[in-house]
Amino acid sequence: MSEKLADELNNERGISLWEMPTTGVTVFRPLTCSAEDLLKRLPEGMLSTCIVDDEPWLRSVAANPLADIDEIISTILEVVH
């Protein structure tokens, strides 16, 4: 799940991917709005924040087997466009 999310986000101009995940954690940030603004506009519990180099980033943890990755991707892309 994290690889699919990272691949989709890596192809988007409006998103900066921190790096390709080596675990189930995908870290990214939007370039068209703040990480906090994107987080507020997504359903609760979909993502969380983390700090990288003193800047807020978003993270997705692929730990929920019931999570619909396609819905997560489409929701993120809808907000950043």
**Backbone CA Rg:** 11 Å
Please identify which CATH superfamily we are dealing with: Aspartate Aminotransferase, domain 1
* Residue windows where pLDDT falls under 50 for at least 5 positions: none
Number of domains: 1
| Average pLDDT, all residues | 90
Structural class by helix and strand composition: alpha+beta
Strand order in the sheet with the most strands: 1-2-4-3
Fraction in helix: 25-40%
CATH topology (level 3) name: Aspartate Aminotransferase, domain 1
Report how far the terminal alpha carbons are from each other: 22 Å
Strand content: 25-35%
The CATH class designation is Alpha Beta
Sum up the overall morphology in one term. globular
Which architecture does the CATH hierarchy give at level 2?
Alpha-Beta Complex
The succession of helices and strands, N to C, reads HEEHEEH
Q: Please, how many helices?
A: 3
